[in-house]
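Researcher: Here's my situation. A collaborator sent me these components and asked whether they could plausibly form a single complex. I don't have experimental data yet, so a predicted model of the whole assembly would be a useful starting point for our discussion.
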Amino acid sequence: MIWLQNVLVSPGEGGVYGERTLDGYRIWDPYRSKLAALYVLGGGVDLTPELRVLYLGAANGTTVSHVADYVETVYAVEFAPRPMQDLLEVARRRKNIVPIMADANRPDEYAPFMEAVDLVYQDVAQPNQVEIADRNLVFLKPGGHLILMLKTRSVDVRRDPAEVLAEARAGLERHLDVVEVRWLEPYHHDHAAIVCSLRE
Amino acid sequence: MLQRYWFGDVDEQGCRVAGTDPAALAERAATLRTGMESYVPIDWEAARACGVVRTREEYIDLLRAVCTTLARKKIVVSYQARDVELLQMVRMLDELDNVINLLQERAAEWYQVTNPSFSRKYRSLPAKKMLSLIRRGAQGGLGDVAGEIERLTGTRSRLMREVSARADEVLPNTSALIGGLVAARLLSRAGGLSALAQMPGSTIQVLGSERALFSHLRAGTPPPKHGIIFQHRRVHNAPREVRGRVARVLAAKLAIAARLDYYRGEVAPEFLNDAQARIDAAGVAA
């Protein structure tokens, strides 16, 4: 990861979503991006130039663009048509983003396009987030990592976020080793990052 | 084991390449059905071995072209659905209401400063009359603004008729139960006809009262009885003690109506007769 004066940045062509730049690098704002928040808080998996990434819940492609600045290839999956239009525009300018319009719940829809990846990053507002992660492990290389951004409010608004997190963690531990669990306070409320690795 | 990938079919013997034209590849890829039990992710070098591409760069380029084509097609299809434009129409209508109200209030305040004797208090002065009064009475900017508000009001009425007509066409059964305008607002809140058709009646009942609902779930305040459907006369005209019941029965029938609209797309008279009778019966005080 690249830090300039303690600010997280990424190398690449700017002007994707009006982000500010610093010495020609794009500032990656932890208040906007949950992944940036995870790095700023000292966690996460280092993004390196040879990495292949499956990004579930790509939305408008803002965080995707920063990930793409660091890694070799990003497979960006998004379901909704409106954000997909923006994502296509981002992918047009970044040659290492493969935009896929499909439902992360249904990996069979995009399996014919997928190679094995080193990192699965998941940020979807669905109640069955752990189940979705499980279904996408088929694309993950042994020893590869999963970063799950758990939106506890999407799972169940009535329950205590800590309880939701504990349950999600237990669910993930069936197939994965949980490496790190971190709340994204103060950048994002009731969001937790769970970093796992796939057993060899 | 045969693997069907976007660039062709691959198995132990070798591969059958599907071509190198992105449009043709996209068309083929759209028809692929993958069973996940025996699925193996692509090794891109298989594509090179098959002669589809020569380098990794070419591989990603071609894949991107195929995926982009597919995504564009899917976007077009999802926007073709008849409910998508209605969604924008009704949101524009509600936005117009907001804007017109704001402008009207401000115009009245302004007019009051230049004409101290003017007040809307203690007499029922309809907005329409007030606007033409201001337009004629005020000079310069304020007069212009009043004229513009009047034109916006006209636009709003025409749009409202359009929304109603479109809702009757897209949501025939739902509109028959609560009127086109309220039906369109339900659609807008749900986010689309397929979403609305998948909602249980209890959700439809409180669509639009999310604040009250979540404060109920979080803090245990009394639950909301109705959301958008309160705008329907049989709900807001019902006596207080049966209003919750009317809302519940109406919402349950709306859930069925939305499914009829989504899966059948035409009026179902036998359902409507029965549903109307049930809703009317729920409104009779015990």
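Model: Some features of this prediction you could bring to your collaborator: Residues 4 and 31 of chain B are 11 Å apart (CA to CA). The radius of gyration of chain B is 28 Å.
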